[in-house]
Specification:
two-stranded parallel ribbon; 10 helices; about 15% strand; globular
Length: about 325
């Protein structure tokens, strides 16, 4: 297959590119390589991907235009992972989210529709659930979404736009709601990566919760997220569909921070910085739909994934 992947040198994008290239597919990677975090990390990922003869890269800001250099090629699928990530950053830089996550998404889906590309897979997020009550079985895809921050709102907007295009332009789209993705080679601003870096140096680990409070996160390993994306590409679904990709096993943020401190025998404190605006106390994904339709089964228990991440960062 010939596949376009946007956000190709991001954390998830790099993993998906690597998997598809290794399977022999031709991949056109698109990324702006912005400075939300250290661009050198993205350039290292790019160099890794450029070791494959079947990888072609274009640096482009999707909020401005879609690359015309690949518009004449026969494309079998577009995997749209490019986005402005992060919840707290959206509180101070809202325009970045509108430009990247709304305008950029519009430019990509316009390209898909105009070129009649058979498959469109795009990244949504567990943040779309926001303040929706979370049952013991976890959020399922059919519950009402009540985003509590701009990031989640832009991702829900993507789902609505995609559903509309599936009706009017007869495209086939799958939205994937990622739950707290983690693993080696991740973004340095993600909690687990940041906590490990600070514990190694004996520095305080900041928790965005109140004193005596805790949060639960349905951390999902990058390999399981990548597997879910590949299953979506391989599916024959038509129309518009949305799936949760989660581990379905929420874990205590505070207990995890303590475990990381203990591993490094760190004297650094745990600092409760207070609940941030738009922060969600619990994320729990119900993956019955993804399991039954896509055959998605997460394989990496959190304790194993955390040990792997610590080993990679040490």
């Amino acid at each position: 297959m010939r596949i376009i992947i946007t956000g190709a040198v991001g954390f998830i994008g790099h993993s998906v590119c690597h998997r598809l290239l290794g399977d022999g597919h031709t991949v056109y990677g698109v990324d702006s390589i912005n400075d939300y975090y250290d661009p050198l990390i993205k350039l290292d990922r790019l160099r890794d991907l450029q070791g494959f003869h079947n990888f072609f890269f274009l640096q482009e800001n999707l909020a401005e235009s879609f690359p015309t250099a690949i518009s004449s090629s026969k494309i079998d699928a577009v995997i749209h992972l490019a986005a402005q990530a992060g919840v707290r950053y959206s509180l101070t830089n809202p325009k970045a989210y509108i430009q990247s996550n709304v305008v950029g998404f519009q430019n990509v889906i316009d390209f898909v529709a105009s070129k009649k590309i058979p498959k469109f897979i795009y990244a949504s997020s567990s943040s779309v659930y926001g303040n929706s009550p979370c049952p013991e079985t976890g959020w399922s895809e059919d519950v009402e979404c009540l985003p509590s921050n701009l990031y989640g709102a832009t991702k829900k907007a993507n789902e609505l736009v995609a559903a509309a295009y599936c009706e009017t332009d007869k495209i086939n789209a799958i939205g994937l709601r990622f739950f707290s993705v983690y693993g080696p080679n991740g973004r340095p601003d993600m909690f687990l990566t940041s906590a490990i870096a600070k514990a190694k140096l004996g520095q305080p680990i900041t928790l965005f919760c109140d004193d005596g409070d805790d949060m639960l996160r349905d951390w999902t390993h990058i390999s399981d997220i990548t597997a879910g994306i590949i299953l979506s590409v391989d599916s024959d679904l038509t129309g518009h569909h949305v799936f949760n990709l989660a581990a379905a096993n929420p874990v205590s943020v505070v207990k995890t921070a303590v475990k990381i401190k203990e591993h490094y025998q760190s004297d650094g404190l745990l600092l409760a910085a207070g609940r941030q605006a738009g922060e969600i106390s619990l994320t729990r994904g119900n993956i019955d739909k993804a399991r039954n339709i896509l055959g998605y089964y997460p394989l990496i228990p959190f304790q194993d994934g955390l040990a792997q991440l610590i080993a990679a960062e040490s």
